[in-house]
Design brief:
The chain has one domain (about 5-130): Vaccinia Virus protein VP39 (Rossmann fold, 3-Layer(aba) Sandwich). A three-stranded antiparallel beta sheet has the order 1-3-2. It is built from six helices and three strands, in the order αβααβαααβ. Helices cover about 35% and strands about 15% of the residues. The longest helix is centred in the last third of the chain and has 14 residues, at about 110-120. With about 160 residues, it is α+β, with helices and mostly antiparallel strands. Helix 1 crosses helix 3 (about 65-70) and helix 2 crosses helix 6.
């Protein structure tokens, strides 16, 4: 989602191209509330990620969360799973052996991977799996959708 000009644009485009009853299944990386409290200039976090991975619209999640953005585009979030704990081990594949925050290889992808690892290690990132359905009728209800579980019912 972060390769689009904006997340608003992404959800509007999804809603435009999905057929009625269609579904979008996506993953996303979002910053947690704790990241907003970090006493590091925001550009120090953003620059390595943007240099390594390209544009990341609304990096700080200030425009809205995924559920609200999808809803504003006419989509219903029918599943939202937090996969943060399951993704932590992947950093050993993304950050080369011996790479650490005190040294800088100068390689944008390594810098970006190191920043994601640092954010993840500090519990500033959340990895989400999501499903959004386009309604099958004008009333906005999707006949095949189960109700979305409450936040406290989501799997860790």
């Amino acid at each position: 989602m972060f390769h689009f000009v904006s997340r608003h644009t992404f959800f509007r485009e999804v809603a435009r191209v999905l057929r009625p009853g269609g579904a979008l299944v996506a993953s996303g990386i979002v910053l947690t509330e704790s990241a907003m409290q970090v006493e590091v200039p925001r550009f120090c976090v953003e620059i390595p990620l943007c240099d390594g991975y390209g544009p990341w619209p609304d990096f700080w999640g200030e425009d809205a969360d995924h559920r609200k953005l999808g809803s504003a585009a006419g989509l219903s979030c029918t599943c939202l799973l937090d996969a943060t704990l399951q993704t932590r081990p992947t950093h050993r594949f993304l950050v080369p052996d011996g790479a650490e925050a005190r040294s800088d290889s100068g390689a944008p992808l390594i810098r970006a991977a190191m920043m994601l690892k640092w954010l993840h290690d500090k519990d500033h990132l959340q990895y989400l799996y999501m499903r959004f359905d386009k309604p099958t009728s004008n009333d906005g209800n999707h006949a095949d959708s189960a109700p979305l579980p409450a936040e406290d019912e989501l799997e860790p």
